[in-house]
Every structure is written in structure tokens, then in C-alpha cells.
Write a structure and sequence with these properties.
globular; DNA-binding transcription factor activity; 8 helices; 21% strand; DNA binding; Arc Repressor Mutant, subunit A; DeoR family ulaG and ulaABCDEF operon transcriptional repressor; transcription; single chain; Rossmann fold; 30% helix
Length: 257
């Protein structure tokens, strides 16, 4: 079992209660105690867990309200490259057909779709309370949310590992963002987000990635999905020729807003 898979399982074990014991990890990971200690040390140094007597726990927020996600808080990210994100959101909304069901993953770029969805009579499944708030004034838009805990930094809902949190709702098209995009695929800063997004991807027939061109400049993070799992990438005119060629070679549709 490689390190990325072990990390995913560690966070799945942590999610229900916020704590997991060393004994449980040894049974879950099929790895040596030394390997598990190295994994936990690496995650603790990254600020994603706290090692305690007998195991590990999720870190509390600075205000003591619960676990935090890595990455830039939503309120800081929303103003970055805003014009590009607005153009990308408008282009993404143009792909929606009246009356259909879609999934919209939380993010500052996917949020920009909302203003252009009014009147389409969509059914929208989203894990983002920001997106819920943006869609609430639209009388013909039906909104569904999964169950789980609210993470305040991003204002998204994440469910415990193994919990069937999604409504029984068919929405084959997924609109999602990413912290970075490279030859390896779409990446996020936090493995907890990766697990949540994988649940959405596994339900989707079509994956549409919304990223401004700056996301091609940083190619580090935990891989959410490979380029071969993405059908369409929507970005802005700042995309480099090298990044555009990478997308073309992966046979992914590219839309430049």
C-alpha cells in the first residue's frame, strides 16, 4: 500500500470521531509500526493531525470550533483572479441544460456559475454553503446537500468516512475546482477534500474542471483524479501554450473563457 493510500485511510478512520488509535491503524493499514509512525509524523509536520497518547487526532480550529482544512481560506481565495473566475463560471453555466440535475463542488470558481443558473430549473447537489446561499434566491432551482459536518474555513459539508451522505439523486455532470493541475491530474491541498471529491467523481458520468490559469503554475498537492478522468477543462486566456498542449495530449476538451 503506497503512502497516498495510507493517508487516505488514516483520514477516513479519523473522520467519524476525530481520533484513531495506533492499534486501529495497524489493523487498517497492514503496515509496520515504523511506517505508521513515519506517516503520522509527516502528517503532523504538515499540520493535518496531532499525535496524542495512544494515537492521533484531528487538529482543532484556532477558535476551538473543530477541524480545519489545509489551503487558502475561502474568504481570501474569493478575490484572487476574480475576473477570470467569473468568465469561467459563465462558460460553465452555459453547458447546463434546462431542467437537468448537476453536482457543483465547493470552490471560489464554481461559485461563479450560480448567477447564470437562474431560470434554468436545475436540480443542484452541492456541498458548499456559499453555493447554497447564492442559489437560494432562485425560485426554480432545487437545492440538495449531503449530510456531514460543516468546515467553516471553506464553508463546505464533509461527511464521515464510509457514511452514505448523498441524497438518492441522479446528477451525472460534476463541476469541480482544484488547487493545482499538472500532468498527474487535478490536485488539492488537503487529503480530506480529496476523499470527498472522489465520492462525487465516482457518481459522475462527466467531470468538468473549472480552474483559472494560475492553477497550472503550481503542480503540487494530493491527486484527486488523473487527466484521463476529466472530460472538460474550463480556464481563462492566461493559460500557457505548454499547459494547453498538455490538455490536448490528454485528449481533454479545453474551453478558454
Amino acid at each position: 500500500m503506497h503512502a497516498e493510500e495510507r493517508e487516505r485511510r488514516i483520514f477516513e478512520a479519523l473522520r467519524p470521531t476525530g481520533f484513531v488509535s495506533y492499534r486501529d491503524l495497524e489493523a487498517l493499514l497492514d503496515a509496520s509500526p515504523a511506517t505508521i509512525r513515519r506517516d503520522l509524523t509527516r502528517l503532523e509536520e504538515a499540520g493535518q493531525i496531532v499525535r496524542v497518547h495512544g494515537g492521533a487526532k484531528l487538529p482543532d480550529g484556532e477558535d476551538g470550533t473543530g477541524p480545519r482544512l489545509l489551503g487558502t481560506p475561502f474568504e481570501q481565495s474569493i478575490t484572487r483572479n476574480l475576473a477570470a473566475k467569473q468568465a469561467i463560471g459563465k462558460a460553465a453555466a452555459a453547458l447546463c441544460s434546462p431542467g437537468e440535475g448537476v453536482m457543483i463542488d465547493g470552490g471560489t470558481t464554481t461559485l461563479q456559475m450560480c448567477a447564470h443558473l437562474d431560470g434554468l430549473g436545475l436540480q443542484v447537489l452541492t456541498n458548499s454553503l456559499h453555493i447554497v446561499t447564492a442559489l437560494l434566491p432562485q425560485p426554480t432551482t432545487r437545492i440538495l446537500v449531503p449530510s456531514g459536518a460543516v468546515f467553516r474555513e471553506q464553508n463546505i459539508i464533509l461527511a464521515a468516512a464510509g457514511e452514505e451522505s448523498m441524497p438518492r439523486f441522479h446528477a451525472p455532470r460534476l463541476f469541480m475546482g482544484a488547487a493545482a493541475v499538472g500532468p498527474q491530474g487535478a490536485m488539492q491541498a488537503d487529503v480530506v477534500l480529496v476523499a470527498a471529491e472522489r465520492r462525487l467523481i465516482d457518481r459522475a458520468e462527466e467531470v468538468i474542471l473549472l480552474v483559472d490559469s494560475s492553477k497550472f503554475e503550481t503542480q503540487s498537492g494530493t491527486i484527486v483524479c488523473g487527466l484521463d478522468e476529466i472530460d472538460t477543462i474550463i480556464t481563462d486566456s492566461g493559460i500557457s501554450p505548454q499547459a494547453a498542449q498538455m490538455i490536448s495530449e490528454a485528449q481533454v476538451r479545453l474551453i478558454v473563457a
